[in-house]
Amino acid sequence: METCQLADGRVLSYDTYGASDGHPVIFNHGFSDSRLIRNPDESIAISLGLRMIAADQPGVGGSSPDKRRRMVDWGADMEELADSLGVADFAVLGHSGGGPHAMSIAHRMPDRVTKLALASPVAPLSQPGMAKLLVNKDLKLIARLHHLHGLIKVASNMSAKKALKDIPSFVEATAQADPSDAHTFLDDPDQKEMFEASFTAGMEQGGEGMYEMTMALWDWGFSPSDISTPTDLFYGDADDILSPRMPLAVAEQLQDCTTHVWPGAGHYGFVDRERWTQFLSSVAVPT
């Protein structure tokens, strides 16, 4: 893990992997995940000539909380990180709740983001009808109670505390909640270890990261329709966390979007080797 101190004094934790001299790509993780979520085989990014940069969002891993943040603020954080790394132009990836974070970067730096790719992105939950497209029962409950900030914070902390007591069991429970991708979590020992490490880092500060993301998912400060960056959007048609209609709603709002369906895939299927390769390939620079 590496760190970058931001202008306001907060610390941002991040990892880099893949081709050290490759085309830079900023990856954005989803709810309860962390910078560690990825396919464990680093050679995929290397073979595609990609230098991956994955940061922990506020309140996650080693990144300082940002209690009043809006989604739009993440773009400014990533601008500081890109500048500190000497990265001029780069692509951006985002999964699930990381999708809005990826769009925030494109919104902030349209002249620097070469390509955008989203996997099962969350739509602005403040838009009419969008919260109803949450399928997971815990997310449905959050949607009903999101205006009760104190209650959401307490619930997030309790959930994190319970998960951290037995991370392997938490991974198994997550697999059960997304049965279309149960094999993704459990069949490959390296992938299972990755999920355990990612969720552990995701809840390292208790429920702070989950609480802050929940608030930000209702308060973007911009719209998908503001994004002009060429975008590839991927989703699984067997998603048990979000209705597939949610990423399709995002696709309809983006100005320049090509949509791809992963038949039989659920919400976390994007890290399987074949899909991860396709996801990364969409932002690779042709040779």
Furnish the topology, listing elements before pairings.
Blueprint: E1 2-5, E2 11-18, E3 23-28, H1 43-47, E4 50-55, H2 73-84, E5 90-95, H3 98-108, E6 113-119, H4 137-145, H5 149-165, H6 167-177, H7 182-186, H8 189-202, H9 208-218, E7 231-236, H10 245-253, E8 257-262, H11 273-281
Parallel strand pairs: 3-4, 3-5, 5-6, 6-7, 7-8
Antiparallel strand pairs: 1-2, 2-4
Write up what this structure looks like.
The protein is globular, with a radius of gyration of 17 Å. It has eleven helices and eight strands. It has 287 residues and is α/β, with parallel strands linked by helices. It has one domain (2-281): Rossmann fold, CATH 3.40.50.1820.
List keywords for this structure.
alpha/beta, 287 residues, globular, Rossmann fold, 17% strand, eight-stranded mixed β-sheet, 11 helices
Brief characterization of the structure:
This protein has 287 residues and is an alpha/beta fold.
CATH superfamily: Alpha/Beta hydrolase fold, catalytic domain
**C-alpha Rg (nearest Å):** 17 Å
Q: What fold name goes in the CATH topology slot?
A: Rossmann fold
Beta strand %: 15-25%
CATH architecture: 3-Layer(aba) Sandwich
Kindly give the count of domains: 1
